[in-house]
Each structure stands twice: as structure tokens, then as C-alpha cells.
Design brief:
two-stranded antiparallel sheet, 68% helix, 2 domains, 351 residues
Length: 351
């Protein structure tokens, strides 16, 4: 049977609620971070394309499986009243919402790609143009797999598409298990999380992985929980890699070398104490070190306006968080919230 009579709960409805909540809430910080940063660096467009293709296959699969039920609910047959149909269509609802919610992320990320030219498939083009070609390359297969299903809207029965639904389910399972691999490689070879949202990963892992474990404990087929388990495990790896890269970048900024300034030069400039005194933990020395780092970045960029450079550096109040006590950090956050006009922008960058 390709439909379920209303009035009976679907297996794993609680997991479905977790998934749809994680998807909706996870999309918000991801879109915000991408728009505020104005760059797609750190996001793998290949991974986004595979996610779109996987979502389309999943939506078509669920639509075919529920089509007879939808038809009977729409006609109002006895036992298929509108109110009784809604609970059994939860899987279809969250699959459609997931697809529609995340599909615009690829074109938005393509819009924020760099204009630097490189060789793609033997042709020299900008990264942004290559991204738009990638949009066409994965949108065409999505449209092609949807065309046969259109016949169902004109009198065909879902039973005619039994084999097709199975193939769509297999394609979705393969894509769901592998779609985060390009993002994992992108995170490994990038210098930080970039436009990838931590909040998105946390919500997706928390909601999706919880629902996956629930299905496994309910002794459902491995084909229903195996691929998402692999996918969410890859998300965990992406989170760990991004966190490590961001932590290493922060340490390199505030730690050894202070952006390449030699110890002798810093001692001569009064930025470090003389030999034998390594206690540099007070606030004045920390402030001097931040200013020296800003000056060094200005010299590397060839920017002659040092005041502007230091002002731009102070915009990122999270990166300038003091290493002192909890009280000092709290005061720094409060002062930044009251005086820094870029408080929210810097906060979103770390979502």
C-alpha cells in the first residue's frame, strides 16, 4: 500500500517534529550569517547542490507514497476528512518545507562568490559565473526527475510509479549520506568556518541525529536511519574541523609572534618587558599588543591610515575579548553592546 489511513500516527512523528524544528531554526542563522558577511567563503556550493538534489528526490518520493491519500482527503471520502488527514501528512509537510527553505541558499551563496578568475573545466571564468553554471547543472536534473510525477496530477495512479518511487528513495539515500563530504573537504582546507553557521550545525545535528537514533531504537529498517546517520556524523566532523580552524586562527592572532613582530622589536617599542620578566597579563600590555597587531595588518595591506585600521579591528569585539576573569569579559560584552555600532554584526559572524 502506498498510503496510510488517517487516524493512525506515523512511526517516528516525534522525530519528524525534531527534524522540522531543527531545519527551520537552523536556516535562519545560516541565511543571516551569509548575508551579513557578504561572502560564501567556507561554504561548499557542491554540497549545497547535492543537498538540493537530495531534497527534491525525497519530496517526490514522499509525494508519490502519499498521493492516493491526498486524493482521497481532497475528495472528502468517508474516513478521510480534512482534520483526520493532517497528522498523517506530517512527513510530507516537513519534507516540502525543508526543500523550499534550503533551496534558495545556493543562489544566494553564488551571488556572494568571489569575482576572482580561475580555470573551471578548461575555461577561464570568475568563481561567481562558475557558481551560476553549477546552479543550472543541478537544477536541470531536478526538473527532469519531477516531470514524470506530473502525470499523476492528470489521472494517473501512484501504483504506476511504484518502481520509480523506489529509485527516488535510493537516490535520496545515497545523496543524503554523501552530500556533506564536499563541505567537509572545504572545511578542512579553509582557514576557518567562514560563512558556515555553527548554529545551523548544532540545530541540524541535535534535531536530525535525535530523530535518526529514535528510528533506529524503534527497529525501523536500516535504509531509513542509516543514510541520515552518516550525513549527521559528517556534520559533527564539520563542526569539529571548523571549531579547530577558528581556534587556531584566534591563537595565531593573539598568541605567538603577534603577526610576525619580532621580540626584539617589541621590546624596543615597549610592547614587551625586558628579558627575565614574562608577565604580560595586565590590560595595558594586552591593549598595546592589539594595537601592534592592527599596525602590522595595516603595513601588510599597504594601508597608510593606521587609525582606520585599528578602528576596523575594534569592530570585532568578540575577537578582542579579554583573557581575564568572567567579570572582565562580561564588562567587555556590556561595553561593546552599549558603544559598538557593529555589535550585532560581529555576533552574527560567530553564529
Amino acid at each position: 500500500m502506498f498510503f496510510r489511513r488517517p487516524g493512525r500516527e506515523l512511526d517516528g512523528d516525534g522525530g519528524d517534529v525534531c527534524v522540522i524544528t531543527g531545519c527551520v531554526l537552523g536556516a535562519i542563522p545560516q541565511y543571516l550569517k551569509l548575508i551579513i558577511l557578504g561572502t560564501s567563503e567556507g561554504l561548499s556550493l557542491t554540497s549545497l547542490a547535492l543537498m538540493n538534489m537530495s531534497n527534491v528526490c525525497a519530496t517526490l518520493n514522499v509525494f508519490i507514497l502519499h498521493f492516493e491519500q491526498i486524493r482521497r482527503c481532497a475528495s472528502g471520502r468517508e474516513g478521510y476528512e480534512y482534520e483526520r488527514c493532517q497528522s498523517s501528512l506530517l512527513t510530507l509537510y516537513y519534507t516540502v518545507i525543508y526543500t523550499l527553505l534550503w533551496m534558495p541558499l545556493y543562489p544566494l551563496a553564488a551571488h556572494f562568490c568571489k569575482v576572482k578568475k580561475a580555470v573551471y573545466f578548461g575555461r577561464v571564468m570568475t568563481e561567481r559565473r562558475a557558481a551560476w553554471y553549477g546552479l543550472i547543472a543541478h537544477a536541470v536534473p531536478c526538473v527532469c526527475v519531477a516531470l514524470p510525477v506530473v502525470r499523476m496530477l492528470f489521472g494517473s495512479s501512484c501504483f504506476e510509479f511504484e518502481t520509480y518511487a523506489v529509485y527516488l528513495g535510493i537516490c535520496n539515500a545515497v545523496l543524503e549520506a554523501t552530500r556533506y563530504l564536499p563541505q567537509l573537504f572545504e572545511s578542512i582546507y579553509s582557514s576557518g568556518s567562514g560563512a558556515m553557521s555553527y548554529m545551523r550545525l548544532v540545530l541540524s545535528i541535535g534535531g536530525g541525529l535525535g530523530a535518526t537514533v529514535q528510528k533506529a531504537l524503534m527497529n525501523e529498517s536500516i535504509s531509513t536511519w542509516g543514510p541520515p546517520l552518516i550525513g549527521h556524523s559528517l556534520e559533527c566532523a564539520i563542526f569539529i574541523v571548523n571549531f579547530y580552524n577558528d581556534l587556531r586562527t584566534k591563537r595565531s592572532r593573539r598568541g605567538e609572534g603577534d603577526f610576525g613582530l619580532g621580540r626584539g622589536k617589541k621590546e624596543a617599542d615597549g610592547l614587551l618587558p625586558a628579558d627575565g620578566d614574562d608577565d604580560v597579563g595586565d590590560a595595558d600590555d594586552a591593549d598595546q599588543k592589539r594595537k601592534a597587531a592592527a599596525l602590522e595588518r595595516a603595513e601588510r595591506r599597504g594601508d597608510g591610515d593606521d587609525d582606520e585600521s585599528m578602528s576596523g579591528d575594534s569592530e570585532d569585539w568578540i575577537a578582542n575579548m579579554p583573557d581575564g576573569s568572567f567579570r572582565e569579559k562580561s564588562e567587555h560584552v556590556w561595553e561593546s553592546m552599549c558603544t559598538n555600532p557593529n555589535f550585532c554584526g560581529a555576533l552574527v559572524k560567530y553564529l
